[in-house]
Design a protein that fits this description.
231 residues, Rossmann fold, 9-stranded mixed beta sheet, two-stranded antiparallel ribbon, 11 strands
Length: 231
Amino acid sequence: MLQRIPTGCKTIDRHLNSGISPGSVNLIYGEAETGKTTLATQLAVNCTLQGKKTLFMDCDGTFSGKRLSQIAAGEFDKIAELIILMKPQDFTEQVATMDRLTEYLTDHFGLVVIDTLTSLYRARIAEHPGKTFELNRELNRQLALLSQISKMHRIAILITSQVMASFKEERISIEPVATRVLKFWADTIINLKPTENNQTVKLILEKTSKPQSAVCYLRIAESGMCECSID
C-alpha cells in the first residue's frame, strides 16, 4: 500500500504528517524559476522509491531527463522505468488525456503529476478570448475528475500552476491562474516565492488538514530542493 509521499523538506513533511497523502489533490504554484517542476520531480522520485509508478504529464515541455537523473542519483535506472511521461501539445490533447486517465492507471500507480495544468489552458484563452467561460468550465471539470480519480484509485494527484497578478484593496497579489477553481479542489496548497537569492525560494504551506500554515526556505540544488536557513 502506498504511504504518504515525502517532499524531502523536513518542515513541510512534518506539517503534512510525512508527505502528501493518497486520495488527495495537491497544488504547487509560483512564479517562473521557483522550482515547481523540480519539486514535482522530487515527489515523483520519492513515489517510485516506494515501488509505485508515477504518470507525469508535461504540459509545459519542461520535464528534463537530466534533471531526473540528478535528483534520482544512483537510483536513476530503476526510477526511470517507473515514471511514465506524457506530453500533450495543446489544450485539446490535454482534455483527451484527462478523459482517458483511468485507462492508464493500474494498482501500481501512486502519483499523477500535471505540470503545468494551466499552461495550455492559458494559451487557448489567448487564442480564443471569447471562449473563456467555456474553457473555465472545462478546467473545472478536469479538476473534479482528478479529485474523483484520486479518491477512487487512492493515489496522490499533484498539479502545478503558473501565476498572475491580482489587484486587491490597492495592493498587488500573486495568485495561481484560475485561482478559484484550483484552490477549491486542492486539499493541499504550496506557494513558492522568489527571494533575493535566485537559488533560494520561500515555501508557504497555505492549506493543509491542519489549521496553521507553515513557512520554510528551500535551496534549489543540483540534487533537488532541500531546506535551508536564511541569515
